[in-house]
Specification:
Length: 265
Amino acid sequence: MREGTYVSQTLALVGRELKHWYRSKIQIFMMAAQPLIWLGLFGFAMDGLMRGFDQELDYFSFLCIGMIVVTALTASMTAGMSLVWDRRFGFLEKVRAAPIPRGVIPLSKIIATTVKAAIQSLLVLVMALLLGLDAGGLSAVSLTVIIISVVCVAMTFSSIFAALGLIIKNQEALMGINMLLNLPLMFASGAMFPTTALPEALRIVANANPLTYAADAIRNSWGGMSSMVSVQSLSLVGDLIVITAFALVMTGASMFFSRRTLRRE
């Protein structure tokens, strides 16, 4: 009975979060516009430049896969902002006063953000195919890997930003942190550029970034892209194990930390 109550309470908060997101038309517009700008402008513009360094590299296809996981990252950053807004309008205090486990609060944000990230990333995939990504490499396996990779990335980073949203109560400060972390996480990975083109120090950082392994997993599963992976020593299964471990560890740590933070407030 207790487990059933925990699940129903979590799902109720997840439903509330998704309704707010669906009703925000500007978020839906930005969700579609931002990846389209990256793929349509940056992808085609950089394709010729990158071929100057590596004639065999199809950079547009490389970037399309990278943008799928980067979209999951940017969507995950909203988890913290959502908590800040809940605190500002008094909803967080109401939930804290209700007879529900404290872990439901961060878990609902993580699940809702993961659902949003999956929808946005699949939309990016559709855009990429329309813009010229070779659909011949897409299969049931690669589609499954895309979903798993996106879910793991979203769980990892939404857990981090949900915890930050409980610590940092100021909206402007949290937005500043989001902007500060966004570009380094994107570019210090194998999502946007091949890690072989990065300096040695930056390559070490990229190899510790879960975005690298998520992008590698998708490229390993997409026909004709296995040569584009950053960490050649890992197989598809190895990539999936790494990102799953990241997701489980960060989600567990976030829930533990969030419960302690909510009890102290």
